[in-house]
Amino acid sequence: MRVGIVCYPTAGGSGVVATELACALARREHDVHVLSYAQPFRLEGCDQRVRWHEVEVTTYPLFRYPPYDAALASRIVETAEEEGLDVVHVHYAIPHALAALLARDVLAPRRLPVVTTLHGTDITIVGQDRAYAPMTRHAIKSSDAVTAVSAWLARETDRVFGSLRPVEVIPNFVDTARFAPGRDGQRRRAYARSGEALLVHVSNFRPVKRALAAVEVLAAVAKRRPAVLLMVGDGPERAACEARARALGVRDRVRFVGAQADVEALLPLADLFLLPSEFESFGLAALEAMACGTPTVAFASGGLPEVVTDGVDGRLLPPLDDAAMAEAVLDLLEAPERLAAFGAAARASAVERFTPDRVVPRYEAVYRRVVEAGGPVA
Ligand code: GMT
């Protein structure tokens, strides 16, 4: 099949899923065309069957806000015509689904079915903002198929927008060959000395991630036992995290390493993955840590209970209870055998439930359905 994938190129979960999906589809012999305003950061080194098409947005003195949606719609039309796309799959509703629907109208009577995948904040934050809600509703109603990354997000979509249509749940996935256990002792020593516990947090430092709470948890843990926190990623709250670490007297225990291309090499080094997000529609970062045998400590909110099993392969605490999170971290660090069992169970769960081989065929089935159907389908 010839598949168009539209996504954000930044280090957010939706862009990562879209890029990994593009690469996995290419390995399964599809021709894949990725459309975004910059090259997605994980696309490099991917299969030759994946081609990236830049969406260029022309500015003009009249434009206070250059019309990205129109530029994207034009690029979808152009790519569909030149490459003979069978289907376009957009990741994140705003504005990608709208641009794809517009392109679909422009291309008629030639068919270009639109598959929209909802990732989380496109429903929970941005999508229900008054400025965008009518457009999000239209995108959900009018796409040929809609998928969500967790059952929780599918329910949330129904709750917020009314039951507009069936939304199929297709979870995130992880390449368990690339994200795998294997501790490089020398590299670990670059971050933590012998006898120190190593905690890791990976995010885009947006407010919903509550990265500041990761610093608070480290400070509470470090009062009772030697520990350091590796902060991977970058974003709006990074500077505030540094300031909080300084204020709490643990600046020397928090290592900020910025966005890293090889996060799969860092995750296995850590004892625990801290994810104090207010909610995660799925929690791809947690899944990647689990695949590396690093158990997650998070809150029982959003779709995380569909990923982490409390007391088996990680801990899920009452939402926003940072003190409970610190206690849970200390309990696990003080029980190395339990910690190792959690790590093994986390890896097993990733391998059994969330590999590309298990998940990608479900997207392929959706593509086949919309291509073969005449009109809109679930
Ligand atoms: O984490 C973000 O804010 C980025 C966001 C995105 O759409 O780029 O991530 C969401 O999509 C991921 C992939 O489906 C999910 O694993 C994340 O849980 C979700 N983030 C939130 O719901 C906060």
- For CATH, the homologous superfamily of the largest domain is named as Glycogen Phosphorylase B
Q: On the 0-100 scale, what is the average pLDDT?
A: 95
Shape: globular
- Determine and state the CATH class of the largest domain: Alpha Beta
Find the structural class using helix and strand composition: alpha/beta
Q: How many strands?
A: 13
Strand order of the largest sheet: 3-2-1-4-5-6-7
Provide structural commentary:
Helices cover 41% and strands 16% of the residues. It has helices spanning 13-27, 68-83, 96-107, 121-124, 133-142, 151-161, 185-189, 211-222, 238-247, 263-266, 284-291, 322-333, 336-353, 356-372, and strands spanning 2-6, 31-36, 50-54, 87-91, 114-118, 145-148, 168-169, 197-202, 227-232, 254-258, 272-275, 296-299, 314-317. The longest helix is centred in the C-terminal third of the chain and has 18 residues, at 336-353. It has two domains: 2-173 and 356-373, 3-Layer(aba) Sandwich (Rossmann fold), CATH 3.40.50.2000; 185-353, Glycogen Phosphorylase B (Rossmann fold, 3-Layer(aba) Sandwich), CATH 3.40.50. The strands form two sheets. It has a seven-stranded parallel beta sheet with strand order 3-2-1-4-5-6-7, with helices on both faces. A six-stranded parallel beta sheet has the order 10-9-8-11-12-13, sandwiched between helices. The chain is an alpha/beta fold and 378 residues long. The chain contains 14 helices and 13 strands. The protein is globular and about 65 Å long.
